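The step that takes the researchers longest sounds almost clerical: writing a folded protein down as plain text. The outcome of that step, for a single protein, is printed below.
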Amino acid sequence: VQYAESGGDLVQPGGSLRLSCVASGFIFSAFEMRWYRQVPGKERELVANIDSTGRRKDYADSVKGRFSISRDNARRTVYLQMNILKPEDTAVYYCRVARGTSWGQGTQVIVSS
């Protein structure tokens, strides 16, 4: 199983970013996908998840109303649209299949003026 996250960048507070993650090594369309984030010294936090069909989505309270998860099963890709970014959103963001055990490299998001 492999993940290739991309889209991270330095952005000002209030700005937006769209993260992408291309996954391989499993039947992508059959599984729930998740986005996590991690700040150095802290545990990885589940940010959002989406079921295999894309119909059911759940979010951490800290991002609800600002972030949106979506997926394109034909492209084996899961997205995270992040709006109204705050400094506390600064982290490395990772995607992973539900109940997966491996991680990709992640993509760095820095929210700072």
